[in-house]
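User: I'll paste a sequence; please echo it back and then give the predicted structure.

Assistant: Echoing your sequence first, then the prediction.
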Amino acid sequence: MLVTGAMAAREAAVAPATIRKWVQLGRLTPAGRQGRTLLYRLEDVFAAERTAAHHRRRPTHPTPPSP
């Protein structure tokens, strides 16, 4: 099923700007167009969301204290 960016954002519980950012970062690729509107596959949107969530949960290594 193809959906607009606004609908994709709603389904993934993110802001529409996040969908645009994922496209800019290459995490999400539009699957088609309807006029000037980009369309996305929901499974691609959810995969991009999982990738983004994985990147947010990366453990950080503490830096050693300064001497």
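Residues 2-44 form one domain. The chain has a mean pLDDT of 89.
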